[in-house]
Amino acid sequence: MVLTKLKKILFISLVGFLILSTGYTQEPPQSPAKLKVDKQMLKNFVKSMLIPGWGQLENGNKVRGILYVTAEIAGIYGYKTNYQAGADKESEFKLFGDEHWDYTTWSFSDNGETACGNLRTHGMQTYIDSDNIIRPIKDHHFYENISKYPEFVCGWDDIAQKDDEDLTPNKLAYIEMRTLSNELYRNAQLAGTLIMVNHLISAFDAALGTDMTSFESTSFDGKFYINPLNVSRGITMEVTF
């Protein structure tokens, strides 16, 4: 899943680079003047990859640099606040589930094929503790199962108030807390993705904005071309002296 998201980010970055490049790309001239490229372009690329806006500030683009830095700070803040809020809400719904859902009560209704009067479709992993008592393994699947599937509904302590949709007030409150926690985690994940994209866009922007050419003569008229699809002639300059 992580690799898939990284591939998407790299794809988006490449598309952005190509779009940005179209503003500079035309048909290359037949005999372009030789171009001397210094290392500043790479330096600014690396600087903005590490700290968005750093390369722009090196180029003298203070406004753009500040914008990238601001986006970085906002992304980090969004990630940290959403992740922490999601973790807090996760602890809250787990404590609520531990308090209001009971394995022993539920297990009396389980005959292996049905439970709580419903067809059994999911397992409940258990272990035997030091007192020789069977207890559920409270992993991710446990907290998901008690909120999603009707076969676990009679484990809730307010089962007498169950409605036709196999919901009880406590189960509904639990679902709302768990849903909010997942939404906060997704927001944090989105903020993390935007942070990575901001690094990439800032790096390409810093590189393309670098004054990286030098000539022996300063009396010339020329055009600058970038073609990222051509490895050997990706950067060319048409110069008239």
Concise overview:
This protein is mainly α and 241 residues long. Helix content is 54%, strand content 11%. Helix 1 runs parallel beside helix 7 (169-208).
Give a verbal description of the structure.
- The chain has 241 residues and is mainly alpha-helical.
- It has seven helices and eight strands.
- The chain has helices spanning 2-22, 40-50, 54-58, 62-100, 103-107, 140-148, 169-208, and strands at residues 36-37, 114-115, 118-119, 126-128, 134-136, 213-214, 221-226, 235-240.
- The chain has a two-stranded antiparallel sheet. Strands 2-3 form a two-stranded antiparallel ribbon. Strands 4-5 form a two-stranded antiparallel sheet.
- The longest helix is centred in the last third of the chain and has 40 residues, at 169-208.
- It starts with a helix and ends with a strand.
Overall shape:
elongated
Total number of strands: 8
What letter string, H or E per element, gives the SSE order?
A: HEHHHHEEEEHHEEE
Main sheet, how many strands, which sense, barrel?
2 strands, antiparallel
> If helices are DSSP runs of H or I spanning 4 or more residues, what is the number of helices?
7
- Rounded to an integer in angstroms, the radius of gyration calculated over CA atoms is 29 Å
Low-confidence stretches: 17-27, 30-37, 212-220, 228-232
What's the rounded overall pLDDT mean?
Answer: 81
Helix content: 40-55%
The SS-based structural class is: mainly alpha
Strand content: 5-15%
Tell me the strand order in the biggest sheet: 1-6
